[in-house]
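Subject: Dienelactone hydrolase family protein structure
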Amino acid sequence: MLILAQGCSAQKEPVLIDDQMQTIVKEKLNYYLYLPEEYEPDGPEKFPLLLFLHGGGESGDSLVAVKRNGPPKLITQGKKFPFLILAPQNPYQNKWWNTRAVKQLLDSIVATTKVDTKRIYLTGLSRGGGAAWEMAVQYPDSFAAMAVVCGMAPLPYASWINREMPIWVFHGAEDKSIPVSESDTMVTKLKEMGYNVKFTRYPGVGHDSWIQAYETEELYDWFVKQRKRSD
């Protein structure tokens, strides 16, 4: 029941209110930052940086989980990389990556370390692969190259990605979690539009295609060859 204050009349026409509110969104991101052995904080040399976004299984508040897969896992096994690696953790088990917060973290690291801004690379697996596609759309001028492993790939994103950014996509043909058709369709569309895109499709492999993808030494050689033409 609608109860009107005494002396008030019921609204008889729709009302359109023109107003504004300034919002502030904060996010706490734990992260690993790998520095190559040649890195010197006070040295003249600047280094590439690889931003790695993990999958849903590594989300939460235990940072050690980030070491389960991808480049962080390889680092724990003794692999040495020629570039910095930034690996943040999504704090939410059942939520999407806050890509704006990730970009703020990335900008902060770039501002405080010896990073070559023409050689910032992006990669992610599964949920992090989907977030990588999203970041490529939101920040088309930030990355020199991108590699996506078994990530959801909304087809409309194809029109918003920087056409000069090389892309490498990996997916298992028997993926039951994120169907390989996600990558098939996106790669086909990107090639039709003239993008520089590579596609590695693993026959007989399921959702864990990241194991083979991130153990592909050619991937890291490919990354370091990429450089933005301009800022």
